[in-house]
Amino acid sequence: MNIYWESFKTFFHIGIFTLGGGYAMIPLIEEEVVNKKQWVSREEFLDLIAIAQSCPGVFAINISIFIGYKLRKICGAIATAFGTALPSFLIILLIAMFFHRFEDNPIVASIFRGIRPAVVALIAVPTFNLAKSAKISLVNCWIPIVGALLIWLMGVSPIYIILAAGIGGYVYGQYIKPTE
Questions:
Q1: pLDDT tens for residues 17-59?
Q2: How far is it, in rounded angstroms, from Cα 14 to Cα 36?
Q3: How far lies 155's CA from each of 124, 149, 164, in Å?
Q4: CB 109 within 8 A of CB 38
Q5: Is the pTM of this model over 0.70?
């Protein structure tokens, strides 16, 4: 099968069945791209997530572009980005066309109240999987916890957290624990 069509279909499928945005897509992307299709390794996937989070723009589009580019350069990136964005565009278009008809419906409001906790779970699972893949242990678990608290409670920009972590990792690798 044509890799462009295959990658488009893969990311279109992920885009259709994902609620909660880009972070909720991580387990689906990992299952399809790492486990089933083996387009990238688990380590590459973890690196791509870090890069996609660090870049401006929508996380899901960023990661799909990186994976598509790895597969087939610019045309691959276009296929995966379009596959990721098209379902959301179509769904939002349909909702916008019909939202006024059901925005005050108590059944719809109840459905959304039920979906919200599931979306939190969809975001929590990849977070724990990423921590495991990134070898977060009891020794270094304070780093993501402090970073999250600084962002959440003190309003520190995530950019500063990323820069500090990068500098800290460099210093640690160069001066404290030399690599093998």
A1: 776 677 778 888 999 999 999 999 998 998 999 899 888 888 8
A2: 13
A3: 21, 9, 15
A4: no
A5: no
Assign 3-class secondary structure to 110-170.
HHHHHHHHHHHHHHHHHHHHHHHHCCCCCCCCHHHHHHHHHHHHHCCCHHHHHHHHHHHHH
- The DSSP 8-state label assigned to residue 31 in this structure reads I
Q: What is the CA radius of gyration of the chain?
A: 19
Instruction: Give 131-164 pLDDT, tens digit per residue.
Output: 887 888 888 889 999 999 999 999 999 989 989 9
**Cβ–Cβ < 8 Å for 123, 20:** yes
Q: Which residues of 6-28 are buried (b: 16+ CB within 10 A; e: fewer)?
A: ebbebbbebbeebeeebbbbbbb
Interatomic CA distance for residues 151 and 160, integer angstroms: 9
Interval 93-134: pLDDT, tens? 988 888 777 778 888 888 888 888 988 887 888 788 888 878
* 154 vs 76: CA distance, rounded Å: 40
- Residue 2 near residue 36, CB atoms below 8 Å: no
The CA distance from 126 to 107, in Å, is 30
